[in-house]
Amino acid sequence: MTVTERLAQVVGETYVSTDPDVLAGRSVDHTGRYRGRAGALVRPGSADEVAAVLAACRQAGAYVTVQGGRTSLVAGTVPEHDDVLLSTERLHEIGEVDATERRISVGAGVTLAEVQRAAAAAGLVFGVDLAARDTATVGGMASTNAGGLRTVRYGNMGEQVIGLDVALPDGSVVRRHSRVRMDNTGYDLASLFVGAEGTLGVITALDLRLHPAPPHRVTAVCGFADLAALVAAGRVFRDLDGIAALEMIDGRAGTLTAEHAGVPAPVDGAWLLLVELAGDSDQTERLADAIETVDLCGEPAVGVDPTAQQRLWQVREAVAEVLGVYGPPLKFDVSLPLSSIPGFADDAVALVGEHAEEAIPVLFGHIGEGNLHLNLVRCTLDGAREHALYAAMMELIATHGGNVSSEHGVGTKKRDYVTMSRSDADIAAMRTVKAAFDPTGYLNPAVLFG
């Protein structure tokens, strides 16, 4: 019996496909730069079916690549070994919001936007927000410990996960749920799978923490003549009570959004900083006092009502829309000490100029955490030339004291550079954990270790 026949017995023939066109469409990453190859697609509809699929693939010696919303920016869902693609898209149950305990239970295939809508309907808010909210699934977000636009206030995805179901590589299912707020019984298994990028098991369902929705909110976009001044302001704003968002935007990004999305920057400046405060009382005066202490290059744009706030957010949201206007951008996700950011920005522009003169470097991200996204727009490099630039950029990040992987994870794209951020002993310990859960190495084999 072939592996596809075994899979059809588990989930039904309707949910198994070997169509070449289907597999080709599922074997390319979100950016369009990286392609792989797959042998079959399977779409289980429950945790038990996921576990049975894993058992069948393990017994058949087939590699498995797990796919959620396929929004990975580091080729984390691109198969390399004629893999079976295991999609979580049918795990889309959404439970009732528990407004008293402020939590919700959802399937791993539920999108971020669906969770946000369910929370909002109950007068609550989910602590993570991403530009890819309409397609990113919460299972994939937990697997990469995603951050995003609200991290400065609520933390990463891991801080929102309070329980989960995981199908393990041996075909069993761990269901870790608790109704109490303090539970230190044994190992914290849930946190082990958050950020593991699907290498230890397949997250099938999650209990997610929700938060009270602040009734008052104020937003501002400030312009700065140089990046050092913006970083200094970022230190001031991130320590404010009520900080809700703190987003840096390269002036070059503002030029692109104006030209290609009709969304001009609301203020002048080589660098823009979007800051938002939220709380139980009016935050306008607190924000105004903080703005008085920083070195702006002009008057800020301030929004105190939802319409004005949405207008100020448009330039940040539009950045993601315009990055692909000249073709797939080359993306770098990096965490840096705040003190290193101005120097890194200058050195990165110079490095890009050496390797790809035609490319436009665009830098934006979450300045509160030093988590930046460097995107090379109009970058036509491929093959050896792209690899040379990528390797040089990874080295530059390490030289500036940064981490080669932040909220996007390692995936397959950065696995060769993990040693720049982790010691040999650290990597050996991670490999030991991987071997304990997946001794044959068949689950997400291209990710993290390769």
UniProtKB/TrEMBL annotation:
Q: Which GO terms describe its biological process?
A: respiratory electron transport chain
Q: Name one GO molecular function term.
A: oxidoreductase activity
Q: Where are the transmembrane segments?
A: none
Which segments of the protein form a coiled coil according to its record? none
InterPro entries named among the record's database cross-references: FAD-bd_oxidored_4_C (IPR004113), FAD-bd_PCMH (IPR016166), FAD-bd_PCMH-like_sf (IPR036318), FAD-bd_PCMH_sub1 (IPR016167), FAD-bd_PCMH_sub2 (IPR016169), FAD-linked_Oxase-like_C (IPR016164), FAD-oxidored/transferase_4 (IPR051264), Oxid_FAD_bind_N (IPR006094)
User: Which keywords accompany this UniProt record?
Assistant: FAD, Flavoprotein, Oxidoreductase
Q: Which residues form the FAD-binding PCMH-type domain?
A: 34-213
Q: Which cofactor does it need?
A: FAD
Q: What does the similarity note say?
A: Belongs to the FAD-binding oxidoreductase/transferase type 4 family.
Name of this chain's protein: Oxidoreductase
The organism encoding this protein is Mycolicibacterium flavescens
